[in-house]
């Protein structure tokens, strides 16, 4: 047999280094829960969705407990358009009529979630899909928003007011990977109204990360991270503290508003670190979790820097 060429030797060396770099992170995170938010804009093609499913199963076998919360905004918009139902976003949130709500529920829980469950389960019997309605996992109250100083009524849009984490913990104990869509029953006080609300998936994921005491909250989207001066490509932020993010929030636009609010809320609630990573790059989540430098934008608690 021929001796390996210098190139083959270097490649093998690099692969081994990548595996060894992961060791302290596997040791640190084994046994902890990580909440991964997979945005609809990051589900660009079948290869990327497959790579995402592989990463989730990889985390599971590294002893980490992944909980997936998925979005599907572009998929909902496409279906609404097909059905001739108008919809608009205000402050990064969809104004949701009762007619649109039926479509949101159908697309998120009936389509996007089913596909993710199927992709993860092509590796084994891991994923179980839930919506916030199942076992009243989530409770929500209606919320509006403020755009340019003006109160906007968003219709059937909610914010999470309560989480019942037991069934997630039961699924994790049974070796399953929960895959959750961001639909939640409406409650006024402790009473269900019978309505369901459309919750932004970043917000729902953040509430779950906080309630589950997650070690990490990772958000996959379709940009490299947070830009301080969007869309100036040279303004990508690799790391910022919770206080720095609080200062930046009023200057953010569109989908980045709920996303960065969600990261801040998670870190404020004690989640070790939140990160925005580019879901268009295959295996970006593994690079974030298992490399020292990470990728994308990390939000760290103030104390960590102090
Ligand atoms: N400061 C910013 N940094 C990065 N992206 C930004 C910023 N401001 C607005 N955006 C926009 O936010 C989008 C991501 O939000 P969104 O479309 O809701 O994604 P997702 O479907 O992954 O939740 C990016 O594609 C980008 O167009
Ligand atoms: C209230 C609100 O805006 N809900 C979102 C829910 C889906 C979502 O958040 O999807 P992404 O993560 O892909 O953006 C919507 O209707 O689009």
UniProtKB/TrEMBL annotation:
Its EC number is 2.7.2.8. The record marks 37, 259 as: Transition state stabilizer. Keywords: Amino-acid biosynthesis, Arginine biosynthesis, ATP-binding, Cytoplasm, Kinase, Nucleotide-binding, Transferase. It is found in: Cytoplasm. It catalyses: N-acetyl-L-glutamate + ATP = N-acetyl-L-glutamyl 5-phosphate + ADP. Transmembrane segments: none annotated. Pathway: Amino-acid biosynthesis; L-arginine biosynthesis; N(2)-acetyl-L-ornithine from L-glutamate: step 2/4. Catalyzes the ATP-dependent phosphorylation of N-acetyl-L-glutamate. This is Acetylglutamate kinase. It comes from Zhihengliuella salsuginis.
């Amino acid at each position: 047999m021929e001796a390996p060429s210098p190139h083959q030797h270097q490649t093998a060396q690099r692969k081994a280094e990548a595996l060894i770099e992961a060791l302290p992170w596997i040791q640190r995170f084994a046994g902890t829960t990580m909440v991964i938010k997979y945005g609809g804009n990051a589900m660009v093609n079948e290869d990327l969705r497959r790579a995402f499913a592989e990463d989730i199963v990889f985390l599971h076998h590294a002893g980490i407990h992944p909980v997936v919360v998925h979005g599907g905004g572009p998929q909902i918009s496409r279906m609404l358009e097909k059905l001739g139902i108008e919809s608009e976003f205000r402050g990064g949130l969809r104004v949701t009529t009762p007619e649109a709500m039926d479509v949101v529920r159908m697309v998120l829980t009936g389509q996007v979630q089913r596909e993710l469950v199927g992709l993860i389960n092509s590796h084994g019997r891991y994923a179980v899909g839930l919506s916030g309605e199942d076992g009243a996992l989530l409770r929500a109250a209606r919320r509006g928003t403020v755009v340019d100083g003006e109160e906007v009524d968003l219709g059937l849009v909610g914010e999470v007011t309560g989480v019942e984490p037991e069934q997630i913990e039961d699924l994790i104990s049974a070796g399953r990977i929960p895959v959750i869509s961001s639909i939640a029953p409406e409650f006024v006080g402790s009473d269900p109204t019978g309505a369901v609300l459309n919750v932004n998936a970043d917000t729902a994921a953040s509430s779950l990360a906080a309630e589950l005491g997650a070690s990490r909250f990772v958000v996959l989207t379709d940009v490299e991270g947070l830009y301080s001066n969007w869309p100036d490509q040279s303004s990508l932020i690799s790391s910022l503290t919770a206080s720095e993010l609080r200062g930046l929030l009023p200057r953010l636009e569109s989908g980045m508003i709920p996303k960065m609010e969600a990261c801040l809320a998670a870190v404020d609630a004690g989640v070790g670190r939140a990160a925005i990573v580019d879901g268009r790059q295959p295996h970006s989540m593994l690079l974030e979790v298992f490399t020292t430098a990470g990728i994308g934008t990390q939000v760290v608690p103030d104390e960590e820097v102090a």
